[in-house]
Amino acid sequence: MHTSALILFSGGQDSTTCLAHALERYQRVETIAFDYRQRHSVELEARLVVLREIRAQFPQWTHKLGEDHMLDLAVLGAVSETSLTRNTAFKMESTGLPNTFVPGRNLLFMTLAAAVAYRRDLQVIVTGVCETDFSGYPDCRDDTMKAMQLALSLGMDKRFLIETPLMWIDKARTWHMAYQLGGQRLVDLIVEHTHTCYLGDRAHRNAWGYGCGECQACVLRANGFAGFSAAVA
């Protein structure tokens, strides 16, 4: 039986929902994030606020929420020519992928998360990747995660479980999952404190949270919130 988990926690809607999911399931939960010189580095500040608010607003989870880890991955930003690591306009590439795709990002994230989980004796690695609203990113696919689980378990001689709670649901259902886990209080926390916008916009407050309202991340979040709000009205 699994009792401990490490959450890839960026401080966005998806990873906050995954954190709540893990806090409901596991006795010991730790978090990890990566500074790869992302254009929306404001998420690295937002995530600390989210952690603080989770501890303050959900006392039933406080004793389960353990150490937070931040790793410096400047090398990933250095080798990436993408609109998430450079000040360039968002567009589709000739490959059919958006230029927000950072090659190798999730593969590197999972490898380093597994190394930390190995050292911290954590059994489950939880990530918010999703095939439904994944913008075509190949490193978010279920097949990729299954391959990573096998490779990491073999390579470290430790049986890891990679858990992907959002893999087959869209953003509206992600909002609904948060509602089921923590009620309106968790939904309000996600709206007010999490960050999703690729441009790092914290100046414009929308019904669904802060963001430019135009990048793909904002559009997905806004459309999902509208669908969720209509369903619970």
- CATH topology tier name: Rossmann fold
Kindly provide the radius of gyration, computed on alpha-carbon positions and rounded to a whole number of angstroms.
17 Å
**By helix and strand content, what is the structural category?**
alpha/beta
What is the C-level CATH assignment? Alpha Beta
Helix/strand order: EHEHHEHHEHEHEEH
Largest sheet: 5 strands, parallel
Strand order of the largest sheet: 3-2-1-4-5
Helix content range: 40-55%
**Strand content range:** 5-15%
What's the architecture in CATH terms?
3-Layer(aba) Sandwich
CATH superfamily: HUPs
How many helices? The count is: 8
- Arithmetic mean of pLDDT: 90
Kindly give the count of domains: 1
Low-confidence regions: none
Strand tally is 7
Assembly level: single chain
- Shape verdict: globular
Distance between the termini: 38 Å
Provide an overview of this structure.
- By secondary structure, the chain is α/β, with parallel strands linked by helices.
- It has one domain (4-232): 3-Layer(aba) Sandwich (Rossmann fold).
- Helix content is 47%, strand content 13%.
- It is built from eight helices and seven strands.
- Strands 3-2-1-4-5 form a five-stranded parallel sheet, sandwiched between helices. Strands 6-7 form a two-stranded antiparallel sheet.
- Helix 1 links the parallel strand 1 (4-8) and strand 2 (28-35).
- The longest helix has 23 residues, at 171-193.
- The termini are far apart.
